Amino acid sequence: MLELLDLIFDVLFGRFFRRGPLEVRGELVGERLHLQLENRGKRAVVFAALEARGGDVRYPETGIAVRTKLEPAETRTVELEPADYQGRTLTVIDASGKRWPAGSY
After folding, report:
1. pLDDT, tens digit, 9 for 90 and up, residues 3-25
2. Cα(69)–Cα(30) distance, rounded to whole angstroms?
C-alpha cells in the first residue's frame, strides 16, 4: 500500500521522471578506458547511449546496450578502446534524455 501511495505522489509531483545521480568515473587500464557507472539514486536508470564527441564527430557507442537498466546502488563497468575515447568528450545518456558527463580520465 505504501509503495502505491509513493508512486501516486511521484507521478503527481513530477518526481517519477527524476533519475540519478549517476556517477561516471574513468580509469585508464593499459590503453583501455574503464568507465565505471554507479547509480546513486533511488530509481533505476535506463541507458540509451554513450556519446563520444570530438570536433564534429558524434555517435552512440555500443559498449552500453540500449535499454540496459542500472538499479539503485548498482555499478557497471564499460571498457572502451583508445579509438573510442582518445581526444573525445564522453557523455552517458539515459532513456529520458538526461546527460551524465564522464569525469576526467
Report:
1. 565 566 556 554 445 567 889 99
2. 28
Task: Tell me how far apart the alpha carbons of residues 90 and 85 are, in angstroms, rounded to a whole number.
Answer: 7
Nearest Cα to 79, choosing from 63, 65, 66? 63
pLDDT tens digits, one per residue of 16-68: 455 678 899 999 999 999 989 999 998 888 887 788 777 544 455 555 555 67
Residue 36, SS3 per DSSP: strand
Per-residue cell: 90: 564522453
Residues 6 or more apart whose CB falls under 8 angstroms from that of 2 comprise none
Closest CA to 31 of 78, 64, 80, 76: 80
Of 71, 64, 65, 77, nearest to 45 by C-alpha is 71
Domains and CATH numbers, the chain: 19-101 (2.60.40.10)
* pTM confidence score: 0.71
